[in-house]
Fold this sequence. Notes:
Elements: H1 2-18, H2 21-45, H3 52-56, H4 59-75, H5 77-87, H6 99-116, H7 120-143, E1 151-158, H8 163-173, E2 176-184, E3 189-196, H9 200-211, E4 218-223
Antiparallel strand pairs: 1-3, 1-4, 2-3
Helix pairs in contact: 2-4, 2-6, 2-7, 4-5, 4-6, 6-7, 8-9
Keywords: Membrane, Transmembrane, Transmembrane helix
Transmembrane segments: 24-42, 62-90, 102-135
InterPro entries: DUF4956 (IPR032531)
Amino acid sequence: MDLLQQLQEQYIQEFSNNVPLDEFLLNILVTAILVSLLRLFYIHFGQAISNRRRFANNFLPLALGTLLIIMIVKSSIALSLGLVGALSIVRYRAAIKDPEELTFLFIAIGMGLAGGANQPVLAVVALALILGILYISKLIWKQQPERQEGRLFIQLTTDIEDLEKITRLLSSHLPFVSLKRMDTLEQGMELSFIARARDLKSLAALKEEVKALSPSTRLSIVDQPELIV
């Protein structure tokens, strides 16, 4: 019993020496502030079609979780080996289809890595440079393209589960239709398309046919001139 207590005290002392409490709290605070700024930047300047705010809510727990893992791993070789074994049976899954989403996830992970490695100054400088470069590049690209009319984001919620029928209906009125997201509901589906329209007359005809599908079918059309379709 005395041996077990000695081992516990030795481990606690080793962990305290390798991970000082003030250092730990400072890194968590700096990382949280930086990732919150990253979240605001993504919400305001991201190019994702929808759900930017909900997706950006993942940045903070992801970064802080990464910070915690790095601080624990660097404090003990035994813990790092145990982590390798644990991660070998854990898979991180996320519905990510936009490369921009993956890019911002990597930046959030990078902030967590910098915090866990006790490099808060590096994290501050790196994020300032990254966001500055991204902001300048967006200003430059915004001045270049001409506005393109007829490029649409279409969201359709229906209790009908015949995807081919719905796609065929859209294609009969629009010259270009591409399915980008499909979510299954308890009854029916929620579909997201990007499309191109010829004129308002074709959209009016599409609206009438969609309404005729079923009483619970809902159609939302948003002008998205920056889409490449």
